[in-house]
Write a structure and sequence with these properties.
The chain has 5 helices and 6 strands; from the N terminus they run E-H-E-E-H-E-H-E-H-E-H. The protein has about 170 residues and is an alpha/beta fold. A 6-stranded mixed sheet has the order 2-3-1-4-5-6, with helices on both faces. Strand 5, helix 4 and strand 6 form a beta-alpha-beta unit. It is globular and about 40 Å long. It starts with 6 loop residues before the first strand and ends with a helix. The mean pLDDT is about 95. It binds guanosine-5'-diphosphate and magnesium ion. The site of guanosine-5'-diphosphate has 21 residues, from helix 1. Belongs to the small GTPase superfamily. Rab family. InterPro entries: P-loop_NTPase (IPR027417), Small_GTP-bd (IPR005225), Small_GTPase (IPR001806). Its main location: membrane. One of its GO terms (cellular component) is endomembrane system.
């Protein structure tokens, strides 16, 4: 029975995929339609209790713009977990997500727990990336996959719970 003091966790993915919205949903239970673009990175915390253990997430929400790419290693270095987000209505963001996965596999912490989040799952009629394609990619690359919606509060708590569960098992 050990208690984690803290877990460094990073959110990566293209601008506009909903990274900040996922964090806002998880940390404050809120959603805003006109979420401001993140400048550089933003920091949030939330503690989850799992049975008799607690995981304090220290979350770095990154900007996603290419011009901030060189800063990304500061945020993923030493991170125990990462959420890589794409937008299910935008295939280019899925391509970008795969690039982040490759970068984390090459430069990230050994054994990092990685979650692939197909966000905006409320926009089903605009879907361009199938769940099957993303799931197959996730399984081949040793990350777990969930479709999420920060707006509709779908799978946001669940993705953090699954990360915590995997961290506690490892
Ligand atoms: P970030 O650049 O990855 O941090 O993305 P933001 O969190 O700033 O979100 C970009 C835009 O997408 C904002 O207008 C959000 O309101 C919207 N958005 C974020 N998550 C969702 C979602 O789950 N569903 C829908 N429909 N819109 C979302
Ligand atoms: Mg943002």
């Amino acid at each position: 029975n050990h208690k984690f003091d803290s877990v460094k966790q990073v959110l990566l993915g293209d601008v506009g995929t909903g990274k900040s919205s996922i964090v806002l949903r998880f940390v404050k239970g809120q959603f805003v339609e006109f979420q401001e673009s993140t400048i550089g990175a933003a920091f949030f915390t939330r503690t989850l209790s799992m049975n008799d253990q607690t995981v304090k997430f220290e979350i770095w929400d990154t900007a996603g713009q290419e011009r901030y790419h060189s800063l990304a290693p500061m945020y993923y270095r030493g991170a125990a977990a990462a959420i890589i987000a794409y937008d299910i209505t935008n295939p280019a963001t899925f391509t970008r997500a795969k690039k982040w996965v490759q970068e984390l596999q090459a430069q990230g912490t050994a054994g990092i727990v990685m979650a692939l989040a197909g966000n905006k799952a409320d926009l089903l009629e605009a879907r361009k990336v199938t769940a099957e394609e993303a799931l197959a990619y996730a399984q081949e690359n040793n990350l777990f996959f969930m479709e999420t919606s920060a707006k509709a509060a779908i799978n946001v708590n669940e993705i953090f719970h699954e990360i915590a569960k995997r961290l506690l098992q490892s």
